[in-house]
UniProtKB/TrEMBL annotation:
This is Pilus assembly protein TadE. InterPro entries: TadE-like_dom (IPR012495). It holds the Pfam family TadE. Keywords: Membrane, Transmembrane, Transmembrane helix.
Amino acid sequence: MRRFRFERWCRWAVAHRHHRLPGDGERGGNPVELAVTLPAILLLLFASIQVAAVFVARSTALNAAQSGVNAQRLHEAAPNAGAERATKFLNQAGDWLVGWKNPGPDCVTTATDVTCTVTGRALSVVPGVTFSVRQTAHGTVERWTAP
């Protein structure tokens, strides 16, 4: 009985064995295809990381400028309170925005408005490529007015 089952299984296995077709000579083609497409895949990966770094740097600069405006717009604020607050924010934010210390955050106050500008460069993932970042925030100065 066992021999009969084994023989029947052998006949089934031989009958259903995968036979190579005449045009099926592409054996080992996958590593070549991968070697051709891998540089494009890596380029897209680094480009997407660079785009993300630019957007994080823009967000960091805008948040620093908004923080400076919020500090400078207070009633009877010190003349450089906004620039100090923006500098403190950028020191704590990390290195997503580089080169911001050279000009430093610039806060200009008029009688009714405050404008803070933060400039720098985004962190570069791709060598030799730099993206400049400049963000400005505006606000009104708190003041007493006659009714």
